[in-house]
Design brief:
Number of strands: 9
CATH topology of the largest domain: PH-domain like
Distance between the termini: 36 Å
Order of helices and strands: EEEHHEEEEEEH
Strand order of the largest sheet: 1-2-3-4-5-6
Length: 169
């Protein structure tokens, strides 16, 4: 089986998929500094240091520090779980021979929309509000671009229009 050619550029991945119906694929994702496993390592090290200091003070007679250290570790754990829940959020846009497939992965939930390729309209208003990219075709509408900045959305729209045969911007 042939492996896909992949280019990754700051949150936007364009991938040619030779063995499927999709001719182009873009992955729009957050620019997260730490993966969930790296974040777990940071959490464990911070908790170890904090609880270690609290235990030393407890042994020296200042026991009141230990409950606050435990509370600190619990609060930090909750914050890290919420971060990890959305660290892998992304949107995938695939252009096939007859369909445009839009997959949204948000907080563990997956939403898939398919729009007819022919007659698809792409709208992007870069000067108003969030400037999200919307697709309309066959009475359906889908919106993407929540996880990348305006410059990457502009580049995505340009590449998408080129892939489906639009005139350049």
């Amino acid at each position: 089986m042939q492996t896909p050619d992949t280019q990754v550029r700051d949150g936007v991945t364009e991938q040619a998929v030779p063995d499927t119906d999709a001719s182009c694929k873009w992955v729009l994702r957050r620019n997260c500094a730490l993966s969930p496993m790296q974040l777990l390592a940071v959490y464990l090290s911070v908790s170890f240091v904090s609880l270690g200091i609290a235990i030393v003070w407890s042994v020296l007679g200042q026991w009141i520090i230990l409950p606050y250290a435990i509370l600190e570790c619990l609060a930090l754990g909750v914050a890290f779980v919420l971060y990890c829940r959305h660290a892998q959020d992304r949107e995938c846009v695939s252009v096939g021979r007859s369909m445009v497939r839009i997959e949204s992965f948000v907080g563990g939930a997956t939403r898939i929309e398919e729009l007819p390729r022919y007659g698809i309209r792409v709208h992007w208003e870069s000067t108003q509000g969030k400037g999200l990219v919307s697709f309309r075709s066959g009475g359906k509408q889908a919106v993407v671009g929540r996880f990348v900045d305006l410059e990457h959305r502009r580049r995505f729209v340009s590449e998408f229009r080129q892939a489906v045969g639009y005139a350049p911007l």
